[in-house]
Amino acid sequence: MSTVTSPLAGRAIGLANVPDPVFSGAMVGPGTAIDPVREPSEAVSPIDGVVVSMHPHAFVVVDGEGHGVLTHLGIDTVQLNGEGFELLVNKGDTVTRGQAVVRWNPADVEAAGKSPICPVVALEATADSLSGVREDGDVKAGDQLFDWS
Length: 149
Hints:
- The protein contains 2 helices and 14 strands; from the N terminus they run ββαββββββββαββββ.
- Strand 5 and strand 6 form a beta hairpin.
- It is globular.
- The model has no long low-confidence stretch (mean pLDDT 97).
- This is PTS glucose transporter subunit IIA.
- Keywords: Kinase, Phosphotransferase system, Sugar transport, Transferase, Transport.
- It holds the Pfam family PTS_EIIA_1.
């Protein structure tokens, strides 16, 4: 079983509340979402593993069991073309849970007219393979979001 922890401080809101049908409909996969605190921060890895996809607005880390976790920093933030995001690791790097991956400011994303809400998704998973999914309440970076069996 893999434990997936929050990459950000904020409030857990569940995927159903993400203002994007691809995420709210769990088309990418099950998981939850974080409405982040509006201050400059670092998004950290939610698991130990290898960075297999790295973009300014999103990254995927795959653990030793083959579980891939997508962290998407805001909605439609690809349209910002990387502005306001600083990559702290590279694709192919091995990272540990809690290691800083991207530096960004959710307030700047919001000021640019995008939602700063961050889906945290278990890729290629089924909803019944996740347990203990956090869908409300305040979370700190590193707090448990769900278990993946």
